[in-house]
Amino acid sequence: MSRPRLGTTGLVYVALLAILAAGAALAAARGQELLTTANTVDLLTRSSLLGFVAIGQTLVILCRSLDLSVGYVMALSSVVAATAMAGQPSRIWLGVAAVVVVAALIGLANGLIVTRLGVNAFITTLGMGLIIKGYLDTRYQGPAGEVPAGFQLFGYTRIGVVPLSFAVMAAVAVLAVLFLRRTRTGVHMYAVGGDAEVARMSGVRADRPLLTAHVLCSVTAGLAGLLIASRFGTGSTLVYSSGYELESIAAVVLGGTYLLGGRGGVGGTVAGVLILATLDTVFNVLGVDPFFKDVLRGAIVIAAVALYARRQIDRAATPPRFPRRPGHAAARGGGP
Amino acid sequence: MNGGPQPPLLRMSGVGKSFLGVPVLRDVDLQVRAGEVHALVGENGAGKSTLMKILAGVHRADAGTVELGGERVDFAHPVHAREAGVATVFQEFNLLPERTVAENVFLGREPRGSGTRIGVDARAMAAETERLLEDLGLSAISPHAPVRTLSVAEQQIVEVVKAMSQSARIVSMDEPTAALAGAEVELLYRLVRRLRERGVAVLYVSHRLKEIFDLSDRITVLKDGAKVATVDTPDTTGADLIRMMVGRPVSAVFPEKIAGTEAGRVRLEVTGGGNERLDGIDLQVRSGEIVGLAGLQGSGRTEIAHALFGIDRFTRGELRIDGERAVLRSPRRAVRSGVALVSEDRKTQGLALHRSVLDNGRLVLDAVAPRRSRARSGRLPGIFSSLELVARSPSQEVRFLSGGNQQKVVLAKWLATDPSVVVLDEPTRGIDVGAKHAVYTLVRRLAAEGAAIVLISSELPEVLGLADRVLVLRDGRITGELPGGASEEAVMELAVGGAP
Amino acid sequence: MTATDTPASGAAGALRRAGAALAGGGGGTVFALLVLVFAVIFAINPGFARPPSLLAFAQQAAPLVVLAVGQYLVIVSGELDLSVGSLVGAQVVVAARLIDGQEPMTLPVLALMLAFGAAVGLVNGLVTTVLKVPSIIATLGMMLVLYGAVRLWTGGAPTGALSEAFRVAGRGDAVVLPLIGGVPWAVLIAAAVGAAAVALMRSPYGRTLVAVGDNATAAAFSGARVWRVRTLAFVGSSVLATLAAVLIGGFAGVTAQVGEGLEFSAITAVVLGGVVLGGGRGAVLAAIGGALAVEALFTLFNQLYLPSTIQPTVQGVIIIAAVAYAARERSRRSPRAPAPAGGPEKSPREEV
Predict the structure, then answer these.
(1) A264 with A58: CB under 8 angstroms?
(2) Chain segment B203-218, per-residue pLDDT in tens
(3) Contact flag B94-A201 (C-beta cutoff 8 Å)
(4) CB count, 10 Å around CB of B27?
(5) Which residue of B98, B118, B149 is in closest CB contact with A263?
(6) Cβ neighbour number for residue B114 with a 10 Å cutoff
(7) I need a labelling partner for B8 at 20 to 30 A (CA). Which of A284, C113, C269, C347 fits?
(8) Strand locations in B330-391, DSSP E?
(9) Which DSSP symbol is given to A239?
């Protein structure tokens, strides 16, 4: 079904391997080892956290939308989980259910504001993020609630070098891939993001995939919040300042999904997540200043989008009627 | 299969349609039989596309009835038309380039997997697409290929397959060969014939006489929104068709040439101009001269306008303005060289719709000559009134103006720059008679003042009535030159190409 | 320019019309809101209606006004600048470290800050227009880069100190008038920026900028260099953010958090002023009105003793409500685009 797509996704995985190899070589040159057990576990744990968010972000971006509220949803979810569980093992499922419901409602609100009120996704999710931030800052002045030891297993259990959280994230990724390929709503996400008009002319209702994507995106951000609560043992409001919204977009874009929707997939996103986590790990091993990572991350995102933008322009050209002359670039008005 | 009296599969009777009070179709009857290729011909603006869109459920007819297989239908949405067995291949494609052939074919109607309510059975989708492709003798296309990797002809085939997957009884195609290269046309021919063999009715809109005679069984000619005749293809000739297509009533009286206007020195000269869409363009326009460009849609008229204005470029040949060689890399260069373009689509290319009349009027001055903008825009009120622009005030937003007045704002913005070469691309499209007359008068005046004018229009009477000479284009090349006042038949013959 | 045709009745209508006349159409509502908020503030705390309080308010609002003008330039051209908050932070930290309390360094460092701001804007603009990266991503990336780079340079925590001369602009008084009291420099600077912006928007460049935001193709087909016009808007935004950094640094001093979230406040202000995201519509005076209204709302909450942490929530609600309101107004007021006679080229968009 998506043999050609494997091309792009495959390329991202090749890039991931190349970065891993380069990082390992750099580390070895300094007499260090990149993929020690501790480093690998750290890399995969990082990946699982960002992975949840980025999977949801992929769905939204495929629909030509955007979610800038994910960081705040994560923070809120961790607090909701920890306060609902209140340290009692018997309330674990209550906490999980509460997070899913709250996150889904936020996503629903985002989706409804976008589809029904005609507010663009940028403003909607930005506003939603600010609303949640205000609530968190006002209501909580620090860590809140307590997660029972049983739930902390979610964050700390591992099977070999694979943390449980990474396995769960991978399972969610597989579910998302199946959702995109095997359900109507999933298939229609590509249609709505690719060309809403064509979708409409084919009888696809544009609102439903978009709404679903926003709900699912918030829910996966909620899952990330659960993981945070599980690892910290408590609800942490300050997670929102960690820049997960941009980092998740970065992972999606690095994974080969078009920012303007209609093309890409979760498989690539997972590779994008792994690339970012690998870079982090490599920087840690090499002792690079953590702030340099921010600089690099910003530059990588811009470069990746610029690269994809260029490829898209090339494809948009109309077929020539007469042969091109060598050296002629299609010059359009407005360029420098 | 054809021949023998059959009840028509499609019967459109007395169909009428107006846009904003302007009638586009009047009392049109059309009958198409199963297993027939029915060509629909007519000049630009004759109403072919509108008729097709009514059939496709894109527009709704104001008057008349449509019957399909004896049952009355009235499609409110393209989806309804498709469900009833009417498939339409539009000029602009309705495909998702990033998705596979199979996904496009089944978009919106994905087969459900066994057991689940939301599941999609991808395997069944691919298999069914493959079967349909083979059925049409086109097994070279893989159902798994993303549509963007296909050629234009193959994409059209996918559109048709999409139609066939819904057991279409009638397939209508709007100029399907307009974007095709030689070998691809053959592919399309095969497809059309295969459809006919299978008893599907094909409604085929085209300008190309060769295709029409190669493919069709019957031909319906439209002129000015009304039906002229339906003829059996073997009983007619290309000359007959052209005679039926042309001769639209003149909707306006053209102002006489202003006394003292005479062709002076050469202001605009293109020799051997060519690029991806044009080839071997030789064009010379003198001061005071109006040169018309005629041709069908897609023949290269607008492409010439764009090359003269720096939107595209001539990559071959030479362009001279007032004797000096000019390389127009951008519209800005063109403006600075004294060229003005009244572009084809004023809403998307000509106006900032939420800005005021005055701001649009001085847009070019602001953009290109900011230092002189204040002084020169002082003339705008005079220009507005000379064009008889009707607006509540100079600060009214142009989106609230009528089409004709919007066009006058576009003209004013160029008049303010005193251009030496003026290119007008469809300057009277969609505007009322009074505004048309104002445009004609202005063209005459500009010529009298010594500008060189290139006039592009689909309205043949307009080009023939105003231009001193008319160049006719086909497939990106100039096929001939005619004097002003030549017959429409002569232009059409050059424009549609060889006929048997 | 004339007033809009919006039918309005009663006092609110009159206010709105007056505001619209002032703002040049479309943005009248924000001035009505501003007056309303001040009326409530005065009702709660009559003492606020005295010149010193009002001037203190204006001084506090000045940086946001300056930022809103910069953001307006970018938004009206059809783009967005998310890097201004971190640019303000970066500039303040840079100033503190370079000046390090030495008075003679003030002017050279100011010049350097301006150059740095212009360079940031140039990069934002070129990445957006030449590399065709959507401005949301380009400026978000810039935000990250600036954030990381400054902390990388200072080792995490801001060091050094601002000079007294530097801080005058942010907290000093320009003149002391009888009856009114001290008039802060910040207020005069913001007023000057506002006046300059209004003049700019009436100049050929300003008109071209709005035309580019309204219809970039038509502007390009009229000879405008769209990439250049937009890039200059980004430069303007960054230079004004630098100015805002001077005001904020002077007023509040140096912290690691300075500048955080300011881009959102500036966008809220501009959007509240009725300026349409996507470009081409809205007046700069209305954006300034939006900035004042946002600050007035924060002041109101202070007067109501609401915690300052609730401010983001208010901002979030405002920004969504303002855009939803504008979207509604547009869809209600603008007639469906009429199809050209003689056969429309594009099929009209239809709902299922």
Answers:
(1) yes
(2) 998 877 888 899 999 9
(3) yes
(4) 14
(5) B98
(6) 8
(7) C347
(8) 339-342
(9) G
Nearest-angstrom CA–CA distance, B247 and B489 = 8
Task: Please say whether the beta carbons of B101 and B162 come within 8 A.
Answer: no
pLDDT of residue C13: 55
ipTM summary value: 0.82
Give the residue from A208, A175, A216 showing the smallest Cα distance to A189: A208
Same domain as B233, residue B107: yes
Which candidate from A185, A320, A333 shows the least CB-CB separation from B118? A185
Give the mean pLDDT of B407-427. Answer: 94
Looking at every residue in chain B, the average pLDDT score rounds to 87
In sequence order, what E strands does C151-192 have? 173-177, 181-184
Q: At what angle do helices A37-62 and A266-286 cross, to 10 degrees?
A: 140
Considering CB atoms only, which of A66, A113, A197 is closest to C320?
Answer: A113
Burial class (CB in 10 A: 0-12, 13-18, 19+), A299: middle
Helix (H, G, I), strand (E, B) or coil at B165: coil
Please, what sign has the CA dihedral across residues B476, B477, B483, B489?
Answer: negative
* Residue A315 phi, psi (nearest 5): -75, -20
Q: Tell me whether C214 touches chain B (CB under 8 Å).
A: yes
Q: Provide the 3-class DSSP secondary structure of residue B283.
A: strand
Q: Is residue B3 part of a domain?
A: no
Query: Do B182 and B326 belong together in one domain?
Result: no
Three-state DSSP class for residue B471:
strand
Strands (E), chain A: 158-159, 162-163
Q: C159 with C242: CB under 8 angstroms?
A: no
Distance from CA of B489 to the nearest CA of A (A): 27
**By the CB < 8 Å criterion, does A131 face chain C?**
yes
Give the minimum alpha-carbon distance from C341 to chain B in angstroms, rounded to a whole number: 5
**Cβ–Cβ gap B356/C204 under 8 Å:** no
CB distance B298 to B484 below 8 Å: no
Domain identity same for B221 and B273? no
Whether B155 and B199 share a structural domain: yes
pTM: 0.84
Q: Facing residues of B41 across strands? A: B221
**Tokens 């008229």 -> residue:** B301
Show the domain range for B428.
266-496
Question: Which residue on chain A is closest to C346 by alpha carbon?
Answer: A197
Asked whether the beta carbons of residue C141 and residue A298 sit closer than 8 angstroms, the reply is: yes
Q: What is the pLDDT of residues C60-112, one digit of tens each?
A: 999 999 999 999 999 999 999 999 999 999 999 999 999 998 999 999 999 99
Using the beta-carbon criterion (under 8 Å), do B311 and A333 form an inter-chain contact? yes
Is residue B257 included in any domain, yes or no? no
Q: Could you tell me the CATH number of the domain that includes residue B381?
A: 3.40.50.300
Query: What is the per-residue pLDDT across B22-44, written as a single tens digit (0 to 9) for each?
Result: 788 999 999 999 999 999 988 77
Q: Which residues of C touch B345 (CB under 8 A)?
A: 345
| Domain C29-45+52-329 belongs in CATH node 2.60.40 | no
Is there a single domain that holds both residue B370 and residue B422? yes
**Virtual CA dihedral for C130, C135, C139, C144, nearest 10 degrees?**
-100
Q: Are C204 and C222 in contact (CB under 8 A)?
A: no
Q: pLDDT at position B286, please?
A: 95
Q: In what order do the strands lie in the sheet with B452-456?
A: B339-342, B421-425, B452-456, B290-295, B469-474, B477-483
Domain boundaries, chain A: 3-16+44-311
User: Quick one: B310 and B238 in the same domain?
Assistant: no
Helix H, strand E, coil C: the string for A294-319 is HHHHHHHHHHHHHHHHHHHHHHCCCC
At position B225, the amino acid (one-letter code) is G
Residue B252 lies in a domain: no
Q: Measured between CB atoms, does B77 come within 8 Å of chain C?
A: yes
- Chains B and C form CB pairs within 8 A to the count of 128
B250 lies in some domain? no
